[in-house]
Write a structure and sequence with these properties.
The complex is a heterotrimer of chains A (about 230), B (about 220) and C (about 240). Chain B is mainly alpha-helical and about 220 residues long. Helices cover about 85% and strands about 0% of the residues of chain B. Chain C is of the alpha/beta class and about 240 residues long. Chain C starts with a strand and ends with a strand. The chains are: A mainly alpha (about 230), B mainly alpha (about 220), C alpha/beta (about 240).
């Protein structure tokens, strides 16, 4: 099996991503507008350009976990389980990014790192769900059953997310309301930078998932060899 | 076939009396601990009461669900139902309904004691109370039975079950607490119907999912 | 010799002896922890045949039966009983297959009578109290019918398993290590049952580690090792 780093498309992707990350950073730092009018245009709010793309990417990841779960249950093909695990791992990674950048933004913008805000809370709950997912994979027994059960868990978890978000939205309306950013209200200058970063993160996600699946396939090959298949 | 499975679950509980009694006694001891740890006046307490109450119900649900499913592992009893020509979704349905009934029975014991120990006012609108409890219990039992099925054959299943269950059931918990709060101050249903809708959605979503998907988790 | 039509069903050859294939296992594969226990396994059991499977401990004999009974999931492959899929098909296709394991597969808190009643009900043939009493009588457990089976000894549980074979109208019996745990009376009982089934030309798959014991009852014996079946003997 070829090393991942010798394949052409991933290498091209890697180069593009590095360039985009670098360019994105420069643009965000020097040229982009700060977003939050009410909090007084603090520089630290520019983390928004990383916070929200992280969120969309994490949710993309978890969506893929659900699709991979359905496909695995339907076909029994191991590749779907590999896609599911890789997406869950990377989704959780980006989830962690949200949970880190969120408090940074919160501290800078409102003086409070943690707020009982529906989107942040949904992210936390999602994060906890996937910690559970990985625990299930760890303790679930033999691989074949783990694959089936985590496929089911991936499906349930994603189905739960809209209900979680809805309930938190109504719940936090009673508690302190935070200034929410309406994406449609932003100027195109802001949106362009935002979408650029979103594209960067999505590409980064795809690259990392692809790499991870490659490693999982190698691991499986190794296991098959030790069992003399 | 469903009635045979449900009768089996209920008969086993009637015979062994393990589940409801352990759920109820654990619930009562938690409430006792509440009354010791929170040294507040009843007025202040009523603010937290609904939250504390539903947390107790979640804790005892974990206990009950785990025990109910563990019973299937003894003597590999579940093997009987799996190898028989029985639709697997019926296993989920019987566990769902029996889990719901066990929780309800434990609540019948716990709730009056809760009210008594913490000297709370007796609420009005008993009919709505009952409906709320029934719907929320159905929700907990649905998602709980599904998760219990997933963790049944895993190691550390007694730990894994709550770890998976609690995040999943959080919207139901919020909705139940909000509804209970509303009922305690006597708000008309119009004002808190969104929480009722969330509970209802939850019950439908997870019962349907359970029926469709339980087959995949039931096998070794 | 006629070839029956094949609408996704098993093609069977009708010879002058009119022997049909009852159970066809096709490419069954199962791994535990990535270790293949059943490797692309295929097997045909003819009507009236008693197939023996012998092998070392952990070779996968029990796994094979449990997969056929759909207690364990298989990774790929299928099995057909008279053309109906046992694994991927409807649950109704299992109604003529009975699996007797060295696990009781019954509820410890319930009595012998209640367990048999439940079994009959789950197989779609509810039995009256009299019929169940008769079955318990035949296996010598009448005295214990109202005891919860967690109080039963190992031998009694095995005999209760044999009682299942009386109340369920099976066409294919899967027996997993039927001799373990039986006392002398129990062994005699099992022998009587097996002789009767032999005479009635019933179809069975018996798993055991004891080749010489299998030779007394089985028409054909396979050994299972490394996930693969090899024919050992045929009578």
């Amino acid at each position: 099996m070829n090393s991942f780093n010798s394949k052409r498309i991933p290498n091209i992707m890697a180069v593009i991503i590095i360039i985009m990350l670098g360019a994105g950073l420069k643009i965000v730092v020097d040229y982009s507008l700060t977003v939050d009018k009410e909090a007084g245009y603090l520089w630290a709010q520019k983390i928004f350009y990383y916070h929200v793309p992280s969120a969309w990417t994490a949710f993309l990841g978890y969506f893929i976990v659900m699709i991979a779960g359905v496909q695995f249950l339907r076909t029994g093909n191991r590749k779907w389980d590999q896609i599911g695990v890789a997406s869950a791992e990377l989704g959780t990674f980006f989830c962690l990014l949200i949970l880190i950048t969120g408090p940074i933004w919160g501290q800078a913008a409102w003086g409070q790192p943690w707020t009982w805000e529906p989107r942040l809370l949904t992210t936390l709950i999602l994060f906890l769900l996937y910690v559970g997912y990985f625990m299930l994979r760890q303790f679930g027994g033999h691989y074949e059953r783990i694959a089936r059960n985590s496929a089911v868990l991936g499906i349930i978890a994603f189905l739960d997310v809209p209900i979680v978000y809805l309930s938190l939205k109504f719940w936090s309306a009673d508690t302190q309301a935070h200034p929410q950013l309406g994406m449609s209200e932003q100027s195109s200058l802001v949106l362009n930078v935002f979408f650029f970063n979103l594209a960067t993160f999505t590409l980064l996600f795809i690259y990392m998932v692809w790499y991870r699946i490659h490693i999982l396939k190698l691991k499986q090959k190794q296991l098959e060899l030790t069992h003399g298949l | 076939m469903f009635t045979a499975l449900l009768k089996k679950d209920l008969l086993i509980e009637l015979r062994s009396k393990e589940i409801v009694i352990s759920m109820a006694s654990f619930g009562v001891s938690v409430i006792l601990l509440y009354s010791f740890s929170f040294n507040e006046s009843p007025k202040t307490f009523s603010i937290f009461a609904s939250g504390l109450l539903w947390m107790v119900f979640l804790f005892i649900s974990v206990l009950g669900l785990h025990r109910s499913f563990s019973l299937e592992k003894e003597f590999d009893a579940i093997g009987l139902v799996l190898s028989a020509p029985v639709d697997r979704s019926l296993i989920f349905l019987s566990k769902w309904v029996s889990g719901f009934l066990f929780l309800l029975m434990a609540q019948i014991i716990i709730v009056p004691l809760f009210w008594l120990f913490l000297a709370l006012d007796i609420p009005s609108q008993i009919g709505l109370w009952l409906l709320l409890f029934i719907m929320a219990d159905l929700g907990i039992a649905a998602v709980g039975s599904l998760v219990a099925g997933i963790t049944l054959r895993a190691r550390m299943s007694e730990v894994l079950l709550p770890i998976l269950l609690f995040p999943l059931v959080s919207p139901l918990l919020i909705a139940a607490v909000k509804s209970t709060d509303a009922l305690m101050v006597g708000l008309p249903f119009e004002e808190w119907k969104v929480w009722g809708a969330i509970i209802f959605t939850f019950v439908i979503a997870f019962s349907v999912t359970g029926v469709l998907i339980f087959d995949y988790v039931s096998e070794e | 010799m006629m070839i029956l039509s094949n609408k996704g069903r098993v093609r069977s050859r009708v010879s002058s002896n009119t022997i049909t294939v009852m159970l066809e296992i096709q490419n069954l594969s199962k791994s535990f922890f990535m270790r293949p226990v059943l490797k692309d396994l295929s097997l045909r059991v003819k009507d009236g045949e008693i197939v023996g499977i012998v092998g070392a401990n952990g070779a996968g004999k029990t796994t094979l039966l449990r997969t056929l009974a759909r207690i364990s999931a298989c990774d790929s492959g299928d099995a057909f009983l008279n053309g109906n899929s046992l694994i991927k098909g409807s649950h109704k296709n299992r109604e003529n297959v009975l699996f007797i394991s060295h696990h009781p597969n019954l509820y410890p808190v319930l009595t012998g009578e209640e367990n048999l009643k439940l079994t009959a009900r789950l197989y779609g043939h509810p039995k009256s109290v009299d019929e169940i009493s008769e079955a318990l009588e035949k296996v010598g457990l009448s005295r214990y019918r109202w005891d919860p089976i967690r109080n039963y000894s190992r031998g009694m549980l095995q005999r209760l398993g044999l009682a299942k074979t009386i109340i369920v109208p099976w066409k294919l019996l899967l027996l997993d290590e039927p001799t373990t745990g039986l006392d002398e009376d129990g062994s005699q009982l099992l022998e009587n049952f097996l002789h009767r089934w032999q005479e009635e030309d019933r179809s069975m798959m018996i798993v055991s580690h004891d080749m010489s014991w299998l030779k007394r009852y089985c028409t054909v014996i396979y050994s299972l090792s490394d996930g693969v079946l090899n024919k050992e003997s045929q009578s």
